[in-house]
Structure formats: structure tokens, C-alpha cells
Design a protein that fits this description.
This protein is mainly α and 158 residues long. Helix content is 58%, strand content 0%. α1 runs antiparallel to α2 and α3 runs antiparallel to α4.
């Protein structure tokens, strides 16, 4: 998935958490957008073709961070819920990846899981070839459905 779909899902998570917890959406929406993008911070030091192999894409990391936040925060648990929900949603979206999957049982098992057929990255640096691969593998369809679903959820819960 792309930054755009991750951000839209984070925004919808923020709106839903605001409705569930009563916390102001001016806190929950930007918080969840940021957290939903956070697993890809490893793109600063890893190539896009292998960034799912890093600790930022291990579900156990997001579960542990959520538990730590829950212990440290007050009664609302908005930070721990945001970390858990938006972090895990990022990984669920990445499981639709066309070139790599997600290591759901890492660090205990290195098997990659994907809801789609994995197509190894064939277009190394050519933007046109990458766009064609994006369209040809159906990834654009998943992006479109994800973004539309997120907009729909925001409109319902806002």
C-alpha cells in the first residue's frame, strides 16, 4: 500500500476512536494518521523492496508499544488504542502488498504472508515500469477500495 492509503485509514481510525472514546478528533485524527505512517519510517534506512523485513513491520512490536503506552497513560487509553489499531491496520494493508508480504510471526518465524500473489519487483528505477506494474497486478484496485472505504467511514462517523 502507499502512504496515501495508510494516511486515509489512519484518519478513519482517528474519527472512529474519537466517537468511541469521546476524545476530541483534533487529537485522534492527526495522531492516528501519524501512527499509521510510522511503520514506514524505516524507508529512511532501508530500500523499499525489503522494508517489510525490518522491526517496524513486526506485529509484536506494535502490541508491546501499545501495552507500554497503556501502562504509562491515564484513563482514556487513546494513545495505546491508537498505537495498536493504526499500527496493526498498517500491517494488514501491507499484507495486500504486490511485491512483498508481512512477517506476521516475526521475529519467531520469517515466513511472509500476503493476501495477493507476490510479484517480485521487476522495475528497479524506472517510474513508468513501476506504475505499469502497480496497475497490472491489481494493486491500484486495492488502493482505490481502501481510500473509498476510509472516506465512507469518516463520513459516517464524523
Amino acid at each position: 500500500m502507499t502512504f496515501l492509503s495508510h494516511a486515509f485509514v489512519g484518519a478513519s481510525a482517528g474519527v472512529i476512536l474519537s466517537n468511541v472514546t469521546g476524545v476530541d478528533p483534533s487529537l485522534t485524527v492527526p495522531l492516528n494518521i501519524g501512527i499509521s505512517l510510522l511503520p514506514d519510517i524505516n524507508l529512511l534506512w532501508r530500500k523499499i523492496s525489503d522494508h517489510h523485513d525490518d522491526i517496524t513491520h513486526y506485529p509484536i512490536v506494535w502490541i508491546i508499544l501499545s501495552i507500554v503506552a497503556s501502562v504509562l497513560e491515564g484513563n482514556t487509553h487513546i494513545y495505546s488504542l491508537s498505537i495498536l489499531f493504526s499500527g496493526i491496520m498498517h500491517l494488514i494493508l501491507d499484507t495486500f502488498g504486490m511485491t512483498i508480504g508481512v512477517h506476521w510471526f516475526a521475529p519467531f518465524n520469517s515466513k511472509q504472508f500476503s493476501f495477493t500473489k507476490i510479484h517480485p519487483q521487476t522495475a528497479s528505477g524506472d517510474l513508468k515500469a513501476k506504475i505499469l506494474q502497480f496497475l497490472r497486478t491489481g494493486q491500484a484496485y486495492y488502493e482505490f477500495v481502501t481510500i473509498l472505504s476510509s472516506i465512507f467511514l469518516v463520513l459516517i462517523f464524523l
